[in-house]
Amino acid sequence: MLHTDTVRSHFPALASGATFFDNPGGTQVAQETLQRMQDYLLHSNANHGGAFTTSRASDATVAEARQAVADFLHAARPEEIVFGQNMTSLTLHISRSLARTLKPGDELVVTRLDHDANVAPWLLIAEDRGCQVRWVDIHPEDCTLNMEELERQITPRTRIVAVGYASNAVGTINDVQRVIQLAHSVGALCYIDAVQQAPHQPIDVQALDCDFLACSAYKFFGPHTGILYGKYDLLDRLTAYKVRPSGQLPPDKFETGTQSFESISGVLGTLEYLSWLGTTFGTEFAAQYQNRYSGRALALKQGMSTIAAYELDINKALTAGLRSVPGLHLYGITDSERMHQRVPTFSFTLKGHTPRAVAESLARDHIYVWDGNFYALTVTERLGLEEHGGLVRVGLTHYNTHEEIQKLIDALHKLVK
Q1: To which CATH superfamily is domain 4-30+302-416 assigned?
Q2: What secondary structure does DSSP assign to 177-194, as a single string?
Q3: Full-prediction pTM beyond 0.85?
């Protein structure tokens, strides 16, 4: 069982006394992350590919971090991991390469539950290439994806299906395994935005059989760095938009310019923290994973399962607390028996108060939450909230506590009164 005081001791920012519920926009970083970044800048700060000591040390650290991310996502090989500025930039970059494979009349499928980083790139290339975009709606009563409509929208002309693993606005976990199967049944590629899933539950890209999956380390306790997984044969086959002297093989061909090597070092530190979490608190999950994973990959799966189990409990506590506030409307899945179908990202409106006013009031109590649309523009538009300031978003993670949840609920009751 996870011990929150021990976990919180690994996050220096928590000593400030603030309550960090802004996690869907970016979590706090682990001490192991900071140590790796400091060590890099002190001892191996150099550019890529040199013959000298610091450059060789830098390249070795990046290679180790790439293997660690491959273990985290269970990629078949480290060359399937591409680093970049963030998920948005990486998706825009790879979409340009994918656009070269499209022709007029091809179809792309996107959803109204997604962050715009997994919508706008596909709209742009559809416009450039004369393709048709087919939209998948949501069930507004619980903000779940309309899977029946998705099945109808995928046709023999579909070439790319883009879907989020978990919603950054309302927390819904999508049945991406089914989406991938549907895409592959017509020969289409499937692109998964896993930014909101990665901090909360284990991911296995081989088990999913997805073609591409993107996430951001700063959403799972690391620095501001983006990560793209792609099947090696696809990355190898695609044309990369890059400068001519750079590498011709994955992943180098897609890592344009000089990377933030200190941040990539920090990603390694983050995964060392998650491995520690798994070996310290997650041994109860070992039996279910030992046949498929070993070493660091096993420790990481145990760590993420530990997080998921803890968050299932605080999900229920936060849901109950929010529903006790008069005039508060909570969006998404609220049934306590369905908490496993969502991550702990909760959004609401409060009667008589704009989302910004709620966020400002909570900030005065040192409770940090987001307001607006969080780049999930199609969600707030579909719910009729975009013109009213969007939503208030509260996002928990495994370093948050029941006491912090109660502090939030008390502050909301006070605001209502």
Answers
A1: Aspartate Aminotransferase, domain 1 (3.90.1150.10)
A2: HHHHHHHHHTT-EEEEE-
A3: yes
